[in-house]
Structures are given as structure tokens and as C-alpha cells.
User: Fold this.
Amino acid sequence: MDVKTSFAAQTYAQARPATAPTAAPAGSGEKSAFSQAVGDFAQTLKAGEETAKAAMVGDADPHALVQALASSQLAVETAVTVRDRVVEAYQEILRMPV
Assistant:
């Protein structure tokens, strides 16, 4: 077996998928602002889903359901706005002359 092939196989075996999270460095108790925002977004959607499920079986009042749906809608609209701004900024960078 060739040495280069062996190194390539080892590197490939150690590589992680792009979707796998990276381990937090030791001693860093703080989350980044982006990861915290993503966590809050996911938590808001999960809470809205749980409230909707509870309302379907009669365990939640309609007022709580409306509040949960409104907060979910606001979270999704905020995420879409941020995504649009990032795409616009990326397109602006692509239009820059080199």
C-alpha cells in the first residue's frame, strides 16, 4: 500500500460530516450569539408545536395557542429576514470588482 494512500485513508476516516456539530473548546462556557439565536429559534418553534398539540386535545386554552402561534410566526419571519439579508450581502460581495 502506498504511503499517500494510507494517509488519505486515515484523513478520510477522521473527517466528520459538515452537518456534524463541532465540540466546544474546553473552558468555553459561553455560546456564540448565532448558536444562541438558533437555539432560541428552535425552542420557540418547539414550544409552539407543543402548545398546538395541547390545544388539539383540549389541554390548552385558545389564548395560549394564539400567543404561541404569534411567537412562532415572529421567529420564522425574523429568520427569513436574516437569511435574506445574508443572501443580499453575499450577492453584493459577488458584484464587487476584483
Remarks:
- The chain has a mean pLDDT of 83.
